[in-house]
Amino acid sequence: MAKVKTRWVCQNCGYETLKYIGKCPDCGSWGTLVEEVESKSENVSNIINDDSKVCLINEIEVTESIRLQSEFEELDRVLGGGFVQGSLVLLAGDPGIGKSTLILQTAGNICKKNKKLLYVCAEESGSQVKLRAQRLNVNSDNLYVYSQTNVEAVINQIDNIKPEILVIDSIQSIYTSNITSSSGSVSQIRECTNILMDIAKNKNITVIVIGHVTKDGNIAGPKVLEHMVDTVIYFEGDKYKSQRLLRSIKNRFGSTNEIGVFNMVDSGLEEVKNPSELFMKERTEISAPGSVIIATSEGTRALLVEVQALVGTTSYPAPRRVATGIEFNRLLQIIAVLEKRIGLNLSKHDVYVNVIGGIEIDEPAADLGIALAIATCFRDVVVDNDCVIIGEIGLSGEIRNVSNIEKRIYEAQKLGFKKAIIPKQSKKLQDYKDIQIIQVSRLMEAISACVSKK
Question: How far apart, in whole angstroms, are the C-alpha atoms of residue 48 and residue 200?
Answer without folding.
Answer: 10
